[in-house]
Amino acid sequence: MILDEILANKRQEVAARRVLRSFNSVLRQPGVSVIAEFKRRSPSGGLIRADAAPADVARLYAQGGARALSVLTDARYFGGSDADLIEARGATTLPVLRKDFVVEEFQIREARALGADAILLIVRALSDSDLRSFLRLARELGMDALVETHSADEVERALDAGAEIIGVNNRDLDTLTTDVTLAPRLRRLVPADHVFVAESGVSTPEQIRILADAGVDAVLIGESLLRATDPGATLAELVAAGAPSGVRA
């Protein structure tokens, strides 16, 4: 029957798209995966690239070898918008993280409706019960969650809540000071079957190589790329530094 044939083909198409857009899966590939971020400004860095077009930047990131995108949608502190996420997602096939400050379940459903493949959950901003319920909802909606930590205690809380992707933000969100040694030091606390992401302060190939040697799976980079004269070329250098052992630049 033609309908059965159409449905069988459609299931294959959907399965292929699901794998392609899986934030978790792409970060598990060999080497250090780069999550390239789009934002217009930040509390610590001020104005970064106010006139940048999300779609243009997303395409540069894809060409430069990024395995995923992160898009800031907070308006007041980062100059972002939901439209930025929609435009960036539509420009490439890369999975997209909606980076915002999630405090209610509504925001998770909203992220899914906007087309986000993953959300950010900040441990210090959430109770243990909220963290568990938000992770559960994200899974029910077919989304991944990058669970951000900044200390050994927060890593433990994230693991206890069932997080599969653990991020360590090298920047203290209270003081805005950055310590790029933090993520490598906390790496040992996260089991090897989880994805470990280093966030903030990474801008050089040498730093990427240090993270690779520490067993970091992925790194989230934004400001250094957006301030570069050629973000795509700068990204390509960082991606090459994080290639699997034996093929690094």
Describe the model.
The longest helix is centred in the N-terminal third of the chain and has 19 residues. The chain has a single domain, classed as Aldolase class I (TIM Barrel, Alpha-Beta Barrel). An eight-stranded parallel β-barrel has the order 1-4-5-6-7-8-9-10, surrounded by six helices. A two-stranded antiparallel ribbon has the order 2-3. It is an alpha/beta fold. α9 packs parallel to α11. It contains eleven helices and ten strands. The model has no long low-confidence stretch (mean pLDDT 93).
Helix content: 40-55%
**Major beta sheet, strand line-up:** 1-4-5-6-7-8-9-10
Unreliable spans are none
CATH homologous superfamily assignment: Aldolase class I
Strand content: 15-25%
What CATH architecture would you give?
Answer: Alpha-Beta Barrel
Mean pLDDT: 93
Largest sheet: 8 strands, parallel, barrel
Task: Summarize the structure in short.
The chain is of the alpha/beta class and 249 residues long. It has 11 helices and 10 strands. It has one domain (23-241): Alpha-Beta Barrel (TIM Barrel), CATH 3.20.20.70.
Characteristic key phrases:
249 residues, alpha/beta, TIM Barrel, eight-stranded parallel β-barrel, two-stranded antiparallel sheet, 11 helices, 10 strands, 43% helix, 18% strand
